[in-house]
């Protein structure tokens, strides 16, 4: 523990019962349920940690580059306090040590802005349990906390592989471009000294968005990598099939898709070729580009029914809402905003085609939580292929998790859900995120035991399933 | 009680405090409120039990045909586990005893999938309180439970009429086709030995859906039954008026309507006749068919303002989402999925026409729960004719009921709601469903007493009203 | 205290712990948090009390004209019980004393209909704490309560200014027409004996609604008052700028806008002039009128970025849903019904233009609570200019407030919210409304302390901020 000499410096107090219900009887049930799964291995079937980190096992960079700059959960709310994103290192090519330290001070100064958010829970747990300091981030403690992290990062047991084992990760999925050669996954698989399991995930979004200016170039590149002429829709399809097979051969179990809406609908082959040709020539209207994207996504579903890669959807987000930030600083900086998202009609064609297909499996996430009780739980409560994804992104927080279980369970039970998905690039926070989910599920289950909807035994089985069989089934692990 | 010899077989434990809040102080208030209404007679103003059952009073069939095959709450979630619907008897003309027993085994095997759903609460309560076995359904106990039910079904006091009295039903509404001759209702009314009250409900959906291929044939049949030429819209209107009068003369107090959306809007008479003629000739476009349906539904509202039948709406469901199941096996098998549903604009014309009409009364149900606080409670909080229907279908569950009360009460109070509606064809589960609702309302009221929003006396009055005056007023009983 | 001689007359019991959580441990935390802010001065940055009341300081009228007729929270739910609005004085030019008393009897008779609504909480608190009677309104006590209020209203310490000080109001914003000369605000500012702070708010809705028949006349009047020819769009813009400056010079800190949707989008200047000219000539289509309104609202945002008046939006309500009541009796009588409201796309243009502008500040309210977690909290969690408005209108109630905090906090924290806004013309109820909000926030914070998401110290700071720095920052007070 790195500690301040002053006895009055505020400390982080990680209460062992945090996030468990206040009612004493319910809390004791929740504590028992949580304790039984607290140390279960972490299954992380969807996330954004680069495979390179584990393949190369290099030390992490400075605290700001490690914890702040790449984490849009932090940058967005700091930006909302009036902090320029560049002051946090976003879009800054090579920040100086002074810039990094200054950015960290900004985080500490505005730390009270995170009260009530899960970011506060996660980062404080990281500081105590991963870094080993219980100093509360404040303007006064900023440099001490920064130094504590920097010192810890330099230690040999703080390399990515050591942490992987210390965190108790059983499997970790990355998210990868279809043209990626997966060299890091290959290296890991070939390394006899590496006991972990790191799987690629096929994420082809950009190759389906025919309305974007870079699309023709990307599709050319896809053709080169696959060794197929992508000048036709048929060629695009073949190239994708080949790349999916490549990913599957490297351990992938799922593809991931995040478009503005959830719709996928088949294209008549001839009309599809015409649309595709128009888009290649830059002559597709915005509506045609959307129609083509929905057709290409339907093709992805069709491939999934054949190659058995689980299809996961993360729709309904307006990406890069603030154009100026996008143009100056790039994407994924915290300006993505959800929109109303519809599933019953959008998924009609694909579920009619493959909804009862034994090879097809679809995990649907949403940031429009109104869909949970209205559409997703009813769909998952009928179609054996469809699973309701765990609370995602803005909903990855204790109250939202409770609402998710309350909205889904009464219609679809527990077994039609996906298990927790950390969806993060913040590697250090993975245990804290899974821990939060386990606490939230224990809290929900305890409530059902306390009002006698479940027996304690039933709740124990469910709590175990939710961290073992449930994600393994939803993601075919 | 039929019990297993083995002392380790799992037992159903129906805790007397189930569904009541965990906090001890709140629970004791809830228990007192619940106890005061626990045995109040059951008013069931909307459901799907066939009148024939009570008129003929024949023994129930085998356990699977009684409990599984016709209950889409069960078949849907079993289908989601990968069980073919035909294995549950759906669409099977005359299942063999072996098939029925095998289907029951599937239910028992997958019983854990129902954990957290109200189906588990209802069926376990049925097993203990109606059947008289406390054996938990499992693969091991399946045959014993099956035999226990089969034995019970054969007993004379297990006939529909005996159960009606044992269940303490005061009034039971059925759901009937406008062309139905209501012979079973007539027989019951004429039977001096029958002390119950079974009312028909006028459900004309199919006669309004001009976009369906069977519509012209149905409308012909309507004309025959009513003795009116339905070749014109005016004829259709007259025929409906006559059939409504026939239903009213047989005790009906309401008509029920379940279309894709809630809109009803008047048709200009001449344009209406043209639309109707086009639809009769099979020449109406899909949009025109929708426009005609909304016009016909508006006519229903106009009739309601004259004949005083309460109009109930159950909109917003995509029926038969899975076409293949529909084509092979029929409807009502668990593949109906809710959609976003709008009311403020949709009901504008009808509320402007009849919203303050003293004879008009409209009870609006929804499976899009976002409408409760946004639209339905505000509407019911102004229009004396409009009542917010109880949580329906997917929302007929403890957590959803709590959300319903929390969403509606602060804007519309308790008196602008409909009282509980079981909406079921699962006759045996009627007491369990009403019991769940009474517990949920007691839990909600207890919370308001515990935080001093209501006095205990006020809560007692409300709890009594909710099972007596509230449904009687909403349904004009 | 005015009391009935009969010991059995029902009494209002205002429990000191009302609205605090039932769990004893959580309640004691909530009580401590609430006690620390209970008597903090009231900041009321948005409401509908006329400045004239405070400028003239005349006695209030009779109890019905004071409490019932102008309060659509009361008239709407009484209308839903079947009470004609005219019986409550709505649209009645000069009600007789008998009519006023009869209206008050109706309120008392139907008082049970308000159980579970915040109206009951507010009015009972007003009766006990402002009027000084603990008689529960019933048919039997109606005249006694009426007389108690009438007697109290006649007392000198019951004048508006005396109550302002007794209520502990620090600042009170009114809502005013752009053409208002603000004479009452001027008089108050010039009165050395008046220690309060009453600010106008610029509310130009009617001048943007080019689709309404009165629009050309209103725009003419705007031109006269501003001394600018409003025959062109450029003239309209100049006139608005001048009136905003006039308001700012008289202390205004915000403008307020309540249209059907939240969209604002710039007009091309030439096209804007053409649209404006068409609208002036009464030739604009409904779609063009909407387009023009959105363009004019965008201009308001542009002005806000220059003059620094905070822009507040209250969109998403279908005003005067019941046309017959509107035509006979006017507006604001309880027939306004919310509609689904979208923000992510609607606010895209304005946030791209001014979202990071240091002078621009936007507070967004909604009665479509689905937007809180999906759109408003994400937007406020990125854009430093955007604040999530407090629960408004139908959502201004304990359970809805809890849902609001639960939906917003995990994504945006506490500091990106507006602080409580009473939005009322019911002057006597202002303390009760703020008290309800303080209790609700204490309850929410106590829950976060009880499950160790916040320390007690953190919760105390937040509770203080929410009634001091938070509204001051959001409204630039």
TrEMBL record, chains A, B, C:
Q: Which family does it belong to?
A: Belongs to the metallo-dependent hydrolases superfamily. Uronate isomerase family.
SUPFAM superfamilies given in the database record: Metallo-dependent hydrolases
An example GO BP is: D-glucuronate catabolic process
Pathway recorded for this protein:
Carbohydrate metabolism; pentose and glucuronate interconversion
Instruction: Name one matching Pfam family.
Output: UxaC
Ordered alphabetically, the record's keywords are: Isomerase
InterPro entries, per database record: Metal_Hydrolase (IPR032466), Uronate_isomerase (IPR003766)
Q: What is this protein called?
A: Uronate isomerase
A GO MF label? glucuronate isomerase activity
Q: Which domain of life is it from?
A: Bacteria
Q: Does the keyword NAD apply?
A: no
Annotated Gene3D superfamilies: Metal-dependent hydrolases (3.20.20.140), uronate isomerase, domain 2, chain A (1.10.2020.10)
């Amino acid at each position: 523990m790195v500690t301040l000499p002053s006895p009055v410096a505020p400390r982080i107090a990680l209460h062992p019962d945090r996030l468990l219900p206040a009612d004493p009887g319910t809390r004791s049930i929740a504590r028992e349920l949580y304790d039984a799964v607290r140390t279960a291995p972490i299954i992380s079937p969807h996330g954004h940690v680069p495979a390179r980190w584990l393949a190369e096992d290099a030390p992490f960079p400075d605290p700001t580059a490690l914890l702040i700059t790449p984490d849009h959960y932090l940058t967005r709310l700091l930006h909302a306090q009036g902090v320029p994103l560049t002051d946090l290192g976003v879009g800054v090519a090579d920040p100086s040590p002074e810039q990094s330290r200054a950015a960290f001070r900004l985080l500490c100064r505005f730390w009270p802005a995170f009260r009530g958010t899960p970011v506060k829970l996660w980062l404080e747990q990281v500081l105590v349990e991963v870094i080993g300091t219980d100093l509360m981030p404040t303007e006064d403690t900023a440099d001490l906390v920064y130094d504590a992290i920097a010192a810890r990062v330099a230690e040999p047991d703080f390399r990515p592989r050591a942490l992987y084992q210390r965190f108790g990760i059983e499997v970790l999925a990355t998210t990868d471009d279809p043209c990626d050669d997966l060299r890091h996954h290959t290296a890991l698989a070939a390394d006899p000294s590496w006991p972990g399991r790191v799987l690629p995930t096929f994420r082809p979004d950009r190759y389906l968005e025919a309305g974007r200016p870079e699309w023709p170039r990307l599709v050319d590149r896809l053709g080169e990598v696959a060794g197929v002429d992508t000048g036709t829709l048929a060629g695009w399809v073949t190239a994708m099939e080949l790349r999916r097979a490549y990913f599957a051969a490297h351990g992938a179990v799922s593809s991931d898709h995040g478009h503005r809406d959830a719709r996928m609908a088949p294209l008549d082959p001839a009309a599809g070729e015409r649309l595709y040709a128009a888009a290649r020539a830059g002559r597709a209207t915005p509506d045609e580009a959307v129609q083509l994207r929905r057709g290409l996504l339907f093709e992805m579903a069709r491939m999934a029914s054949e190659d058995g890669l689980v299809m996961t959807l993360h729709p309904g987000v307006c990406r890069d809402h603030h154009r100026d930030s996008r143009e100056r600083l790039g994407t994924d900086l915290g300006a993505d905003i959800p929109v109303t998202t519809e599933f019953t009609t959008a998924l009609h064609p694909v579920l009619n085609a493959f909804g009862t297909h034994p090879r097809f499996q679809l995990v649907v996430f949403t940031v429009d939580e109104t869909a949970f009780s209205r559409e997703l739980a009813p769909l998952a409560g009928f179609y054996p292929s469809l699973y309701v994804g765990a609370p995602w992104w803005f909903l990855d927080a204790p109250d939202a998790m409770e609402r998710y279980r309350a909205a889904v369970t009464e219609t679809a039970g527990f077994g039609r859900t996906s298990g927790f998905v950390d969806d993060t690039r913040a590697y250090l926070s993975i245990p804290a995120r899974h821990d939060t989910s386990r606490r939230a599920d224990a809290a929900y289950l305890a409530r059902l035991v306390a009002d006698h909807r479940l027996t304690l035994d039933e709740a124990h089985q469910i709590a175990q399933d939710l961290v073992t069989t449930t994600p393994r089934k939803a993601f075919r692990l």
